[in-house]
Amino acid sequence: xxxxxxxxxxxxxxxxxxxxxxxxxxxxxxxxxxxxxxxxxxxxxxxxxxxxxxxxxxxxxxxxxxxxxxxxxxxxxxxxxxxxxxxxxxxxxxxxxxxxxxxxxxxxxxxxxxxxxxxxxxxxxxxxxxxxxxxxxxxxxxxxxxxxxxxxxxxxxxxxxxxxxxxxxxxxxxxxxxxxxxxxxxxxxxxxxxxxxxxxxxxxxxxxxx
Length: 210
Hints:
Aspartate Aminotransferase, domain 1
């Protein structure tokens, strides 16, 4: 989101006396101006993040929560101690090392992910049946298929997997129409990414109308 949007949401939370929970999992993988941590802007903002996404270390299950509200912090800490008692010392050592080296790691990672996003953008620019809102951070997009009402969406997803060995997250997983799908572009090689995008184009054209 933009800084103006973030400030506007914080202003609403402050006006109505509620809390704003901001998932900042991809904040470190921003392609433009990186937003400040929301919790640094207001006692009504709560920031959460982890090493699972931008840093690609989901196996250690390490994340964090930031708040300026001391009472709320104590409540979260008490809840955490009841749920998990303590974290793995080895996992926390891995997390500390990753965060200490974050500058050098992100300096190498960001240009590679920008290149991946550009690959997807070039495909969408040349594909009249697909559009998207280009993400300004992270490695996930949510494209939309521009197809008619009689298009067999269920068959499209079957063809994409069964004939082409490619898979995306259908929109209904995210409480959206199936014309949308979740597309990750960070993990595969660039050649695999291009192959998967070509498979989507092929599967759309191979899918029958009802």
